[in-house]
Every structure is written in C-alpha cells, then in structure tokens.
Amino acid sequence: MENQRVRVRFAPSPTGGLHMGGVRTALFNYLFAKKHGGDFILRIEDTDQTRFVEGAEEYIINALKWCGIEPNEGVGFGDGPYAPYRQSERKASGIYQKYADQLIASGHAYYAFDSSEELDAMRKRLEAAKVAAPQYNAVTRQNMRNSISLSEDEVKRLMEEKHPYVIRLKVPRNEEIRFHDIIRGWVVVNSGQVDDKVLLKSDGMPTYHLAHIVDDIEMKISHAVRGEEWLPSAPAHILIYRYLGLEEKMPKLAHLPLILNPDGHGKISKREARFPVFPLSWSDPRDSSSYLGYKEAGYYPEAFINVMALLGWNPGNNQEVMSMEEMISLFSFERVNKAGAKFDPEKTKWFNQQYLKKKSDEELAEVFIPQIEKNGFHPDKKFAAEVCRLVKEKAHLSDEFWPLGYFFFIAPDKYDEQVVAKRWNANAKSYFEKLTEAWSNATNFSHTNLEAICKEVAAANNIKPGEIMQMLRVMLTGVAGGPALFETAQLLGKEETIKRMESALSTLPV
User: Does residue 359 have an active-site annotation?
Assistant: First the structure.
C-alpha cells in the first residue's frame, strides 16, 4: 500500500442535486489526488433504483465542471481501465454476486427470508422491550427467518421455491473492531453496536455496504474519503474486508466532519432557505421544489471552492484567499479537523468580493450587460465596464451590479427624503443653480475639474463642501450613497448631468 498510486473516488448517488457537503468531499478528493499526481474518479452509486432521480447524474457532472474539480476518469469524464463506473452497469458482470457468494461460502454472510412485515414486527417488539437501537443482529437473527435460524432443508426449500431473500453480513456478537482513520486516529467499536447489514438485496442489486467495497478493491482505490455520516457503518465495512481476506488491500479511510448551520446546531440541509446550498440551481422533479445555486446567485466558482476548502481544513497559515494551485500544494488530511465546521454565509460573500475585485472591468461587464439588457437598456461594453469600475468596491456578488448602479441608466424621479429634509433649503437651491450654470459652461468635464468647480462655487457663496455633497449625489442619483461622486458625474456626461440637476431644481420644493 505504501507505494500504491493515489487513486481516490467521489461516488455520489443520483438521488438529487449535489449538496455543498458533496462538493466539499469531491474537492478534498481532488486536492489530494492532484497533490500526489494521482487519479480522481467519478463513480455513480446507483444501486438503490427506487431513489433514482431523473437529471441528477447530469447535474452532478455539470456541478463538478463549474466548480473546476473535474475527475480524470469516470462517468462523464472518460472511461479508464475499470469501466463501467455506474454500479447498475457493473452488476451485469456478476461482480457483486461473486463477492457475496464468497462471504456465504466462508460462513460470514447468510440468507435472510424475512418479509417487510416480519421486519416491522421485530422492530416493534424491540421498541416495546425498550431496546435503545432496534436492529437485526447476532441476538435478534436467532428469532428471524434466515439460514442461521432455519434448518438446512427449510433453507433449501425456500431457495428452490425462489422465495425472496437478501444476503446479510454475519456480525460476531461481542468482538472489538479497530480501524485507523487518517483524520480521527484509531477508532474502536464493539461489534454489539453493529447490525447485520444487508449486502445484496432481493432484486440482486448490492447495497452500498458491499458495492463500494467491491468497487474500491476492483478499481484499486488507495484512499476512501467520505462524510462523517458513514462513520457508524465503517466497522461493518472493516469486517467485510477482513472476511474477504482483503484487509491488507483496503483503502485508507478518512471521514470528513459535518458542515454545520451558521449557529453551529445541526448539519446544513437543502431546506435551509437563508442561503444557497447547491452549486448550481436545482429543480427537484419529484416535488417541483426549486433551489437557488451559487452560480445563479452571482458567486464565482473560485470563491465558492475557496470557502468549501476551508470548511474543516486549514492550510497551516493565516492565508484565506487561495488559488486552486495553492490549495493543492498545501492540502493534507492531517490538517482536516474532527469537529464540525460552521458555515458562514456572510464570510462567503466576503470571499466572493475578493475574487470579484480581481476581475477586470471588462470581465465584470460581460456579467453586468445581461442584467442591464434585462432592464431594457443596451449600453456599449465600454460604458458598462466603467460602471463596473465605479461600483465594484461595494459589490459582493456579480448580480449586485444593477442594484448598485441602476441610476447610471435611469434618471431619478424621487429623491432620498432624509437627505432632502436635512440639506434642501433656499440657500442650497441657490448654490445648485449657480453650480449648474458653472458646470454647463465647463469645457472640461473631467471629475477633477468638476470637483474643483464645485469647491470654487461653494467658497464664493460661503458654503462648506460637506454641506452640499450628499445633496448633490441625491440630485444626480436619487440615493444617499454610491460610488465616487464626481466620477459618477463624469461618466453620466455633461448633457445628462445638467439635465438631472435641472430636473431636481424644478422638482424639489423650497
């Protein structure tokens, strides 16, 4: 194992959109593979056909592409030597049945013929007896219908009659199961806490518990990286490897911490309405529910991925904003925390702002122009880029450009009431009439000259500049805050600026 090529897999189920927790799992796999010059594989674990959702697989592929964490092998990214990469397609080769039969033959698995009604009755009996965690295990299997409790003749009869059955793992009653986790160190669990997992279902499809082990061995996976929710199942997986004689070949395990809500209570779910939880917008065909994605909310993939990387991992320094190359060079599972990581949506906006500021005005204009056109205007790219230059310091998201700069396209027809109440009077009106005339006569309409004229007129009328600046902004834009005032006037141009000032002078009462 020490000299084994690094091969990791991201193995989601096509049961819905790819949640941010799944993106983080994929990202950590990707960073680790890239750092060690290994392979990153996308495997689709679709053994539970009852939960299959149309469009989910395509969504997963598109989300990984948008995030910039593309596998070099697997579904949607090119066949490698271990194709196919969908478990439903791999089943046809009989590979899962072969391993299940091996466990049956060695006495480490058994046939269970229980109906769903019998299983429900068993759980109710255990609940009535105040058993904390009702489960099918070394104790309860003795009173159920399986090849351990039934006679050989009865088992043979049921098999010949093609009675539906599942294959279950035979977990020992009281044994210590030890395994090492790269993130958590040594984990010790008593087998009494582990149930007899179903390995092969009645339709011949393997469950996750058997399928991922078979595929990891067959695909020579070196490290199995998955969420903390799979930690309780890990002892059963260790037993399966052991009983198959493959414990020496099993991948090294790493169970990632949960991503928690901002208040630190409970993991983030897709029902969280205050902020997106999907990389791309997702519409669930099962109930027609729709969820906004980070892409559609105006986030850059680089910023989203930067945030995901720091949920549970730290680079060992104080650096926060990192390129993909920097993350790859710094990444290690030893620096992944055991504790859950709180997600901070406001900090996520800050990260996006850092990446937004790095974009050229022309790049930002490409995103802004569709917003402008949606509102009925068709500016040239140069003007849109100039607006972006002025408003980008206050923007966190690319879809905020219109709210921050709409007044470059729409002249105000109402004015901030608080500013007007505080600053508008006969003296102010007199000053702005003189300023309007002075600016009308200006041959140089640069922002520096406009500011100089403004101060000259103020000085000549014994007015402090601070008394009129905010009112001037309101006259030009309608609002009390915004980008650099005189640069705003310069960009609006002489004709539009004078027109807006004259309109305000005729509209505002004294």
Answer: no
Q: What angle do CA 384, 386, 391 make, to 5 degrees?
A: 95
State whether residue 22 is helix, strand or coil. helix
> Would strands 39-42 and 73-74 be described as parallel, antiparallel, or unpaired?
parallel
483 upstream amide cis, omega within 30 of 0: no
Q: At what angle do helices 56-67 and 301-309 cross, to 10 degrees?
A: 90
Active-site residue identified among 270, 342, 347, 429: 270
476 closest CA partner among 456, 457, 448, 454? 454
Sheet containing 198-200: which strands, arranged edge to edge? 109-112, 166-169, 198-200
pLDDT digits (tens, 9 = 90+) for 400-453: 999 999 999 999 999 999 999 999 999 999 999 999 999 999 999 999 999 999
Q: How many residues does the chain have?
A: 510
CATH number of the domain that residue 334 is part of: 1.10.1160.10
CB hemisphere CA count around 362 (13 angstroms): 0
How many Å apart are CA 409 and CA 405, to the nearest integer?
Answer: 8
Pair (378, 311) in one structural domain: no
- Which tens digits make up the pLDDT trace of 85-105? 999 999 999 999 999 999 999
HSE-CB at 120 with a 13 A cutoff on CA atoms is: 3
The whole domain housing 383 covers: 359-397
327 and 304 co-located in one domain: yes
Please indicate, yes or no, if residue 477 is contained in any of the structural domains.
Answer: yes
Q: Is residue 340 part of a domain?
A: yes
How do residues 5-21 score in pLDDT, each as one tens digit? 999 999 999 999 999 99
Per the structure, the count of domains in the chain is: 3
